[in-house]
Amino acid sequence: MTSKGSPSLITLPVENVYRILDHLDELTIFLSLRNVCMRLNTVVDTYGRYQTLDTLKLSYGQLPHKIVQHLADILLTNKTLITLNLATNDIGNKGVQSLANALQYNTTLRALNLEVNKIGPEGAQYLANALEKNQ
């Protein structure tokens, strides 16, 4: 009797990965499967629901900096997201700095809601600098 390892998302045929993605919400696809590996990035990028994801609402949560940083990393390469709502997440200056670094290069995002996030003058300056560079 031979023992086979369990298949992983890395080795499954693309069609099977799409079937799995069909059962996940957009947030899970956006935050959990991006930047895992090159193959998954390619699979997710060609997945229909991801290609049409233009709005993401993550308001009224408590996003830890690790998640905000991951979101910023994704924004560096994402070409579909137009609206991002991060209101009331206590992101603070550190989180906004991560987002600002990504916003320097992201050319598709048009609306970003950061209200009620404990962003001070320092964080506002990060955003201003990023938007100045992204013209």
TrEMBL record:
F-box domain span: 6-53
PROSITE patterns to which the protein is assigned, alphabetical: FBOX
Residues passing through the membrane, by range: none
Keyword line: Repeat
Pfam family, one: LRR_6
Name under which the protein is recorded: F-box domain-containing protein
Organism: Rotaria sordida
